[in-house]
Amino acid sequence: MNNRNKDVFFSIVVPVYNVENYLEQCIDSILCQSYTNFEIIMVNDGSTDSSSTICTSYEEKDDRNIVIHKENGGLSDARNVGLLRSKGDYVIFADSDDYWAGHQVLEELNILIKESNPDLIIHEESRFFSKKNVKCKYNQRHINNKRGDFKKEAMLLVYYDLFAACAWDKIVRRTILIENELFFPLGRQSEDMEWCGRLISHIDTYAIYPKSFYIYRKVREGSITNNTSEKHIMDVYFMLKHGLINDEGISEALKNYWAAIYVVLLKDFYILSSNNRKVIWDDLVSWKNLLKEGRNIKLDQVMKFYKFLPFVLLPAVLYIYRIITVLHKKYKTL
């Protein structure tokens, strides 16, 4: 977008699958924006509840709402379909069980884009555990440069978990996604990990939106993110392995990004069957050089354990920590 005086047109892509209890809150929180130059692309991914009917009712009420009905193909496929249909200058992904807070988000993003013309805007989510418990991590307080050269600041953004493995905390220039074929991998769970790992190499400029408007529903029955399966962990393993194939040729920021994913894999190692643990163990050992302080704020927490442990015990300790964290999250929803 070369004309700085031109208002930005946003495409908001919302994959929909069996979220009848949350969908209206999600869409209403976007439609209530004071800024009106946007489209919402709802991709109904073969829902078997009333989500399909809800989508259609929104399309009939407002011509900014576009609904695509398709057979179930998974979250990646639904996002890709929405991205290919989008016409905006910038693309925003929103999960249909989450919602936005505030009425001036797009208006303020329009101003930010006119001022700095970034390839990428990063915003931090607030995590919804219950109506009385919504938390924002607000790591941007550690960052002095809120906009500028992404490649110069990428290591700091990765360290403070601002450039993290999420699609919905990023607003991206659409041409970058389309021209570089940055689509989500099909058949994977935690597909955001691979997508963000590829995205990082195509961003030149960035800006940070200072407000936390995206409310991420941390605990929901049936949510993929709250059900860690054998397939989910093996998908993380294959994405990490693929990301590290050209270890010597990748930037230090990208290596640090994958180091944070490595910690996720170590933490979930004991959810795997004994056979799959044997399959991935040699690679886990070969990647232990990723365990260094200063790569990522979460990894630094792991290093507090690792300093006093042999590597072979680290996954077990992290698994115990994982169980404690899950129980704590459940308690916070009460």
TrEMBL record:
**Domain Glycosyltransferase 2-like: residue ranges:** 11-177
State one molecular function term (GO): hexosyltransferase activity
What keyword terms does UniProt attach to this protein?
Glycosyltransferase, Membrane, Transferase, Transmembrane, Transmembrane helix
Give the transmembrane ranges: 305-324
Q: Which SUPFAM superfamilies match?
A: Nucleotide-diphospho-sugar transferases
What InterPro entries has UniProt attached to this entry?
A: Glyco_trans_2-like, Nucleotide-diphossugar_trans
Does Glycosyltransferase show up as a keyword for this record? yes
Pfam families reported for this sequence: Glycos_transf_2
Q: In its UniProt entry, what is this protein called? A: Glycosyl transferase family 2
Native source organism of the sequence: Flavobacterium frigoris
